[in-house]
Amino acid sequence: MRFSTEPNGVAMQKKYLNNKAHLLQAMNNKCLVLACLVLLMASCAPQQQAQQQFQQQAVPAAKPAAVSQPAPSQPKQEITAEVKELLDKSKTKVRSVSYRYYGPETGADFYEFYLKDSKIKYLPNLELKTLDMPDSYDTIFIDKSLKAAESHCVAAYCTYKGKKQDLNYDNVYISTIIDWVSGLTYAKKIGEEVIDDRSTWKIDSSKGTLWIDTFYGIPLKADSDGKSYRFQQISVNSVQDSDVAP
Predict the structure, then answer these.
(1) Is residue 139, in this structure, part of any structural domain at all?
(2) Is the pLDDT of residue 54 over 50?
(3) Do 90 and 24 share a structural domain?
């Protein structure tokens, strides 16, 4: 059996130092682990913040709900069969026509019109009644096919007869009785009326309200955009070539 040769005090001091060293080592280990945890958390924080920012940027802002708009109303695009049959009479029964025209251009008076094929002659109601000046005229001749217009003085009492000048076609052209029933995209019968002792169909159309003669298929009256148009003393198929030529 071996016995320690060191005094009891020395042995106890060594044991104390030994325990203290182990304690310090354990504390150092804990500090090291804590430091590692702090470094790890510090390195993760920017990544988490960046990820949150990315997610916030990636999520699109909510758009306001679209307000539903009513579908635009489609223009009327139909000519009823019965009205088409009536309008076609103007093509088969009317080869020429003359009439008195009342409209916005005529004031309280009327213009006399003569139509045959593409030729038109009308006599405007001129404020100046005398026809004794070199530039005086009483008649306008129009050729629709050429889009040409001329003023002439043709009356027996013209001092200076013949052509006066070429006119601006668009400025002097007035829609004729045939123009009103040409190129319609919509037409529907809405009634019947008698005008100037003649039977008419009242037609709602793309050009306005028309009163169409039931025999010839031409209008006796028209209302459009708050304006009224009248066609009176109509004579069908009586116009000669010489009536519409200068």
Answers:
(1) yes
(2) no
(3) no
